[in-house]
Write a structure and sequence with these properties.
homodimer, Isopropylmalate Dehydrogenase, 2 domains, ten-stranded mixed sheet, 19% strand, binds 3-isopropylmalic acid, NAD binding (chains A, B)
């Protein structure tokens, strides 16, 4: 029986996770999906109480017993520089080698698209963000700190193994889903070492997929084109930092962070533990106001169910999310007037019906 | 008499520079501005002919005699990885210590703004991009190249001096232009060393400008907000790489790269040599078709004239560019039907009239 570890986290994290949990409860009790839920007390509250972030015993138990982790959001203004958030988030992404951060940039309704003369069908791409290296390794240092001569360095570390497996995941996904093009974004015209590897590796891997067009873009051009005309983009592969930037920009095209879901997976082995999180953060200003949009967390549950083998449920959840937008059964960030809880009530009813 | 070194460069570079030159000729011959023009034969053609990029004697003469450099665009598919372009572009930016790359993101007409429910007045910000360090120093290397164990690294190198002077330029500009807010974008939640310096330095410098609000953003959030609602942004300060990304995204909000001008300056000393370039590239597919939009190069000339002391001309050139858009005297990329040359004919006539 698949065990799902749930980390509600901080801010609106627990608010949306409470609703995502109701969706999971529906599948468990009304559809008899064999699912075990394991609630983990990790996040800012816990860290402020006793300094715990992601203890080794917990990580080990997740590794040995869980099939998936569902994460709400992390980040709390009371924790200086949010060290707990990084420990937990990167502990999961790096610690479980979840090298592909899959972030669908898909608009569910025309009115969510902020661009003139574009409709929902124009915004439909899957971004594969490298999730275990790049600038996120946080290798570097500060020298002569606090003096006029201070130097501060971070290294963008890329390995053939890391770059290749992420690029390959993008092509495999394209092949499996009938996509015609994979775009790769780098800044190889400025970063001659790190991104020359991306450039070279991209076209090498592409040779193994003769039916799929491989197109290279500089990241600055990609951001421009995503706004000018997002229609050509089907699958995008890129490094950790650019994936972060491009998917937040992508969220704007989808109607905001309240609509953006993500899966962190070890793509080559679908049986391995994976981690699922809505792209949004803990959003302190929204806390306690029943304003958080739960749809991103529902679609994140959809991605998780697909990963666990129930692929039709992902499509079904997405369809009901689109209906929520169309019928106004949604929160104010996406043009509705309902609260978090009322949207979820409606959503679970629709799931049942 | 100010000497202007002109480097037309590659692709559409020479096409737009020929038109920018006509504007300069108008100021020289009809308005009697004391301007000397010096045409430099540098770019892909020259590099392919004899391997020359930016020779030391030329750089020295520019340094000793010129008041400004006007650059068209660099980049040619015939030059592997465009080494000539980097040599020349970074030779000018780094070599003359032009640490502030000022890129106005300003929409001149409502119809150029690609966002629903936004008008030209909503898009009006000045981006200060650090221009002499960051990931562009290209420090790093490749190890075990071509093997499965390859590692490729680029370092993001930031100095207190470099970060502080760029941030200070942003606040000085805000003060001089009555702007109320300066935003700084970094990724200090992931790059704990390099961007912690940016974060710390930003709020330290901000203390010296008590009348101006200092606001910090992560770069991913900035890209999202620029699309969701660009109105709060007046002045943005950021590092070299993020400045590159944000200003291409910004160009999309202005109506495309054909509308984006830039100045590369040593901000603290306005008497020093500066370099001016439209943000667009050499655009090989447009070459020879009379399709290149010359307006970005005209506004770039405007920034140059302001730098040389003729501030009113910058505003005048911008006004006529806005009129070109309003009256359809513009190229197809901005909704017109005219060619490069016809737009320039109209433009120079309007300058005269
Ligand atoms: C919180 C932050 C470190 C994180 C990231 O940059 O990965 C977030 O922006 C995300 O996209 O998940
Ligand atoms: C050509 C490239 C190296 C350059 C840069 O990244 O600076 C360009 O994109 C720019 O913005 O001027």
């Amino acid at each position: 029986m698949p065990l799902i570890a749930i980390i509600p986290g901080d801010g609106i994290g627990p608010e949306v996770m409470a609703q995502a949990r109701r969706v999971l409860e529906y599948y468990r009790s009304e559809r008899n999906f064999p699912l075990d839920l394991w609630d983990l007390d990790l996040g800012a509250e816990r860290f402020l109480r006793d300094g715990t972030t992601l203890p080794k015993e917990v990580a080990d138990r997740i590794r040995n017993e869980a099939s998936a982790v569902l994460l709400g959001a992390l980040g709390d203004p009371r924790v200086p520089s949010n060290e707990h958030a990084r420990d937990i988030l990167f502990g999961l992404r790096f610690g479980f080698d979840l090298y592909a951060n899959m972030r669908p940039v898909k608009a569910l309704a025309d009115r969510l698209v902020p661009l003139k003369n574009r409709t929902a069908k124009d915004v439909n791409m899957m971004v594969f963000r490298e999730n275990t290296e790049g600038i996120y390794v946080n290798v570097g240092g500060q020298f002569k700190k606090g003096t006029p001569d201070e130097i501060a360095i971070n290294e963008d570390v890329n390995t053939r193994k890391g770059v290749e497996r992420l690029i390959r995941a993008g092509f495999e996904y394209a092949k499996a889903h009938g996509k015609k093009t994979v775009h790769m974004a780098d800044k190889s015209n400025a970063m001659k070492h790190a991104h020359e590897l991306w450039y070279r590796c991209f076209f090498e891997v592409a040779k193994e997929y003769p039916g799929i067009a491989a197109k290279h873009l500089y990241v600055d051009a990609l951001c421009l084109f995503m706004v000018q005309d997002p229609t050509p983009f089907e699958v995008i592969v890129t490094n950790n930092l650019f994936g972060d930037i491009v998917t937040d920009l992508g969220a704007a095209l989808q109607g905001g962070l309240g609509m953006a879901a993500s899966a962190n997976v070890h793509y080559a082995d679908p049986k391995r533990l994976a981690m699922f999180e809505p792209v949004h953060g803990s959003a302190p200003p929204l806390v306690g106001k029943d304003l958080a949009n739960p749809l991103a967390s529902f679609m994140t549950v959809g991605m998780m169910l697909a990963h666990l083998g129930w692929k039709e449920e992902e499509a079904r959840i997405e369809r009901i999310c689109a209906e929520a937008i169309e019928t106004g059964n949604c929160t104010p960030d996406v043009g509705g007037t309902k609260g978090t809880k009322a949207v979820s009530d409606w959503f679970v009813d629709r799931l049942k019906g």
